[in-house]
Each structure stands twice: as C-alpha cells, then as structure tokens.
Amino acid sequence: MESTVSAAGLDIRRFGHDDLPQIRQTIIDLHATAAGSDRDDFKKKFPWFVDHWGGNPAFACVIAYDGDEAVGFAYGAPAAEGREWWREHLDEAPKEAVTFSYSELAVHPKLRKQGVADALSRALLEERPEDLAVLLVDVKHPRVQALYEGWGFRKVGERQPFPDSPLYAVMLADLPLSS
Questions:
Q1: Can you give the residue range of the structural domain that contains 86?
Q2: How far apart are CA 31 and CA 157, in angstroms?
Q3: Pseudo-torsion of CA 44, 47, 53, 56, nearest 10°?
Q4: How many C-beta neighbours within 10 Å does residue 35 have?
Q5: Paired residues of 155 in beta bridges
Q6: Which EC numbers does the record give (predicted)?
C-alpha cells in the first residue's frame, strides 16, 4: 500500500510486498544508475535480491521521487525472530532484539550529498516496531560506514555472506534511530 511523506524536498512514497510488481523495475533500474560502472557483477544478481526481499510478506520499501522521476530507494524486511544472524558478533545480545534487516539503499548520483540517503533511511525506519536494525556495509567504503554511524549504527563485526561477496561490516542500531 502506497503512502507519501515529504522530505529533503522530495516526495517519499512507502510501498510493501503487494506493490513489488509495480516497483520492481524502478528499483532495479535505479540501482543500476546509482551503482554506475562499479559492482557490475552485483548488478547482474541484484534482481534476485529484490525478489528475495520483496517476497517477504513484511517487505518495506521507500522510494524518493523528484516530480515523476525515482531518485532513490531503501528497503528491507523484519528478520525471523530468534534467527538474527548478527548475534554471533556480540558476546551478549540485547534483551530487546527483534530486528529489521535494512537490505539496500541507493541514491541517484545527481542527488548525492543532499540529505536524500538520510531522508530515505529515516522514512524506512522511523515507524518500525522492531527494537533494532541491522545492515551490511562493504569494508572498502569507510565513508558509507561513517554515514551510518552518524545515524546511530555501530559496527559489531565483519561478515562475508557469500563466497563471491565482499567482506562487510555488520552494523547494528537501536530503533528508533537517533536524531
């Protein structure tokens, strides 16, 4: 079900699992534009990830529009309770540990460094009922990691989820995010 929020001078619309057929290609195309020539191998795999996450009945997505043009998105879904894989990186897990898995964020290159990533992240996570949010950031991108740290995420470990994937920083944040 689509709903709208205004942020960063953009129209940020909320979508769920049932909306995936209408937004799938928009997400894939915007991801390809945002990734540019980097990550060509992942761009080929990305539709599988969209379908995987979008197949979750609790899938949540926000897309930022500048007029009619999609210029950014963020999505994820709740983790299965009791199967929070990030726990292996902590000596002691928090007592309140229901987790939202923040899977993907992309912003069109022409709108980077204008607060769009922040607006999308906050729109995605602001009304989540979960206690925590978890995400992965390529360890070769310390500026991206610093961006998430500015929103209250902290690195708790490192993980390589697939043999052909990069090494990622595992980042965890309490919800709601800090201001």
A1: 3-174
A2: 26
A3: -150
A4: 15
A5: 171
A6: 2.3.-.-
143 within a domain of the structure (yes/no): yes
Task: Please give the structure tokens belonging to residue 53.
Answer: 């996450």
Give domain status of residue 179, yes or no.
no
In a domain, residue 124? The reply is: yes
| pTM for this model (two decimals) | 0.89
Instruction: Please list, in sequence order, all residues whose beta carbon lies within 8 angstroms of the beta carbon of residue 131, skipping any fewer than 6 positions away.
Output: 94, 96, 97, 98, 99, 174, 175
CATH number, domain with residue 157: 3.40.630.30
Domains of the chain: total? 1
Q: Per the domain annotation, does 70 fall within a domain?
A: yes
Question: Six-digit token pair at 66?
Answer: 């500048």
Instruction: Summarize pLDDT for 78-110 with one digit per residue, the tens.
Output: 998 877 777 777 788 788 889 999 999 999 999
